[in-house]
Structures are given as C-alpha cells and as structure tokens.
Amino acid sequence: MMATAPGKCFLVTGPPLSPAEVSHNFSPESIRWPTVGKYKVDIASFEALALPELQIKEDTDLFIIDEVGKMELFSSPFFPAVLKVLESNIPLLASVPIPKFGRDIPAVARLRDHPGAKIFTLRPSNRDAVKEQIYTQLVDSE
Question: Gene3D superfamilies this protein is in (predicted)?
C-alpha cells in the first residue's frame, strides 16, 4: 500500500466477474489481448473505466487506485495519468505489488520511490494496525 499527501474518493475497479466469466469470456478480439498469468487484459475497457476517473477535479479529496501493476500498465496512458495525480495536491492511496523474484516493475518502482510516497506493507497479521496508520496518514495530510 502506498499513501501520499492533501482532499472524494474514486475507485479504479470494475464489477467482479464470476470464475466462469473470467475463464470462459472469450470473444474474437480477446485472442489479441495481452495476458498476465491466466488473465487477459481488455485494455480498451480498462481505459474507458479508469482514465476518466483519474482526471483531477476541484472537488476531489482523495484518489484510491487498486492497483498499479503489470496488468494496468498495458495501458500506455494509465501511468502518466497516475503520475499526474501523484504530482497534484490530492492524496493518493494505491496498492502496488511487491517485487517477485527480485524483479521490479520499473513504473511501480518509480511510484514507490517518489519523495512523497509512504509505503505500508500489508500482511494478514498487521492489516488492522496498518489500516489505522493509513487512516491517520490521510487525515493528517488534510
């Protein structure tokens, strides 16, 4: 988890899919979609949902992005939009993956290394305490 500091809440996520939809929802164009593990990435649908929500508006108090990872980064305009949010004066709460096998995603590392970023490592054993830390961090940034 990553939180940055000041300001409504936007979730970048879609409706949950059932396991049947995830594994059998194929169309002729889905053959060309990029994959991450066993999942295909419908970039056009993702961008239609996510990019309008990442626009900076006067009445926005907080951005929440679940998650900035390999799948989301198939969208070329997504990362610049996240950077624009990060450079704004609006707090950003985002989940980012932990590097696997010593390999990091360069765009994720750039967000993690941002001077305004505060990193929270979430585990089942600490999630309640971390939730309070994140809340305090966001409230104190107002």
Answer: P-loop containing nucleotide triphosphate hydrolases
- Asked whether the beta carbons of 66 and 2 are under 8 A apart, the reply is no
Tokens of 77: 């305009």
CB atoms within 10 A of CB 142: 10
Q: Whole-angstrom Cα distance, residue 80 to residue 127?
A: 30
What pTM, to 2 d.p., does this model score? Answer: 0.75
pLDDT classification of 142: cutoffs 50, 70, 90:
low
Using alpha carbons, list the distances in angstroms from residue 78 to 23, 48, 113.
25, 11, 18
Q: 2-140 is classed in which CATH architecture?
A: 3-Layer(aba) Sandwich (3.40)
- Of the candidates 106, 104, 100, 136, the one whose C-alpha atom is nearest the C-alpha of residue 118 is 136
Whole-number Å distance between alpha carbons of 137 and 5? 8
The strand ranges marked E within 33-79 are 35-36, 39-40, 62-66
**Three-state secondary structure call for residue 65:** strand
Residue 138 reports pLDDT greater than 80: yes
